[in-house]
Design a protein that fits this description.
190 residues; 7-stranded mixed sheet; 7 strands
């Protein structure tokens, strides 16, 4: 298996990873951290996918995708923190004033999990941020200390995943997910 990570500019592939089965559904589309909360709550049904399609045409697009050959098998949401809700999040601190990037979602398609794809996605997110001039990249994973994380909450990643990619803990947060504290993990790119 040769996994390749590319910018998420192909909408149909982003849709395959984070879109709903029904176009009128009001599910995530990985927008909950990407756009302001009020806009996220107000955006309904097909309008959610239309916004993601627009984001896929922007430079930079809203994240990266992992491919096994021609098949899309993973997604990571990564973008400048200033364009995300982390710019204003009261539970996750800013450790300095650098224009850092945030990686907030790592998702591997069912049937492809347990094969290291999340590691490829995180490495690809780092390369993507570096290629776009980011001085540093942050993630906000759970510090689960090896305990099982509910699959529906595993999208933020684990501290161990980020440590394996070279990130170090930069701060504690006041955020808790699935009963686990989230930590601010950071990798300087300069």
């Amino acid at each position: 298996m040769a996994i390749e990570v590319r910018p998420a500019s192909v909408f149909v592939d982003v849709k395959a990873m984070v879109g709903p089965k029904r176009p009128d559904a009001n599910v995530c589309w990985c927008l909950s951290y990407r756009i302001p909360s009020k806009e996220n709550l107000a955006l309904q049904g097909p309008a959610r996918g239309e916004l993601v399609q627009k984001l896929c045409r922007q430079d930079p697009p809203p994240g990266v995708l992992a491919y096994d050959g021609d098949e899309v098998v993973g997604w990571a949401g990564v973008h400048p923190r200033s364009d995300t809700s982390f710019a204003r999040n009261r539970k996750i601190p800013h450790v300095d004033d650098l224009d850092v990037w945030s990686v907030w979602c790592i998702r591997v398609r069912p049937g492809h999990r347990g094969k290291g794809i999340s590691h490829h996605l995180l490495e690809g997110a780092v390369v993507f941020a570096r290629d776009h001039g980011a001085p540093a990249i942050e993630g906000y994973p759970v510090d689960n200390k090896g305990e099982k994380v509910d699959l529906t909450m595993a999208y933020v990643g684990t501290r161990k995943l980020f440590e394996r990619a070279g990130f170090t803990k930069a701060a504690d947060t006041e955020s808790v997910l699935n009963g686990f504290p989230r930590v601010l993990m950071r990798l300087d790119l300069g």
